Amino acid sequence: MTVRPRLVYERWTDPVAGDILERADIDVVRLELDEPAEKSWAVLESAHGYQVATRTDVAPYADGVQWLAGPGLIKRCEQLLAVCSAGAGYDVINVEACTRAGIAVCNNSGPGAEAVAEHALGFMLDLAKKITVADRSLRGGPLEDRMALRGTQLLGKTLGVVGLGAIGSRLVQLCAPFGMEVLAFDPYVDAAMAESRGARLVTLAELLTRSDFVQVTCPLTAETRGLFGREQFAAMKPTAYFITTARGLVHDEQALLEVLIDGGIAGAGLDVFHEEPPRQDNPLLRLANVVATPHTAGITVEAAHDLAVATATQWQTIFAGGMPPRLLNPDVWPRYCDRFHEIFGVRPTARANQTTPQTN
């Protein structure tokens, strides 16, 4: 290459990513969000790759949204060839704007699936067994009637999974010992594939009316934004639980608040919110039938390490001239190759470069 690739990142999920990339011929620069904006822009405008900050990362900073991969950033960063999100979600990237500009968009689906699926199962058990409710009652003073904390069991119940990708499929496996009937809604999965993953494909309407637990594991896209509103919550059983480890904007928070207060559903397990981190005065956090976590479903020691390795390996592949293994906008490939050639003097190949990283 005639030019040394420059990669800008906000943070790694684990330091192992930096260890791996140190061994590659890549200029790796950290984007310091608390630095003056002019300095940060100077760093980004020279970048060929950008590991995009998450919404939670940028939320504490004024105008933090400018560091997401939207049209404004894309216009300023003329050398940018590829942008990647830290995990499976890629709502921090405007895919259409990147494709128009000839920028490859990647995510890191897969490594965090186990962590998120286990978290979703944890929500199910917590809500059904009233674990958090019982803990609050026990700590709040003398316990008058423990029968008031009577929960239910998962055995034989019906699970509805919205999004049967890596996370949803793993959740189905984890729930197998409970003998649950599993329904799934996913427009990108056919009936045979759903059956092979242990679920029966149904419409969203049927899933909502029949499920005891509605688990949302789909990405935030134009199709899923606002997927759950008043109509969908009204269709659920009053004994059912709504659980999401997806993205906050997939559901209407006000509609969810209303149905929880009115007793239209039994409770909710929330790892995501419209505003992250959520404000302490968010009314959902005041409800006894809500269990919440601050977008930590995918944050485990193991998942953070595996995500970091996958992230670093993908960037190695990109700058070695291979096709990214988790390319989200394959239509960009011809133009991306032209731009890559213009900048580096070599042309990428359509075959992913199989790189085995050293992690110690």
Automatic annotation (TrEMBL):
The keyword Ubl conjugation does not apply. One of its GO terms (biological process) is amino acid biosynthetic process. Keywords: Amino-acid biosynthesis, NAD, Oxidoreductase. Gene3D superfamilies: NAD(P)-binding Rossmann-like Domain (3.40.50.720). Coiled coil: none annotated. Residues 121-297 form the D-isomer specific 2-hydroxyacid dehydrogenase NAD-binding domain. Residues 73-329 form the D-isomer specific 2-hydroxyacid dehydrogenase catalytic domain. One of its GO terms (molecular function) is NAD binding. Belongs to the D-isomer specific 2-hydroxyacid dehydrogenase family. This is 3-phosphoglycerate dehydrogenase.
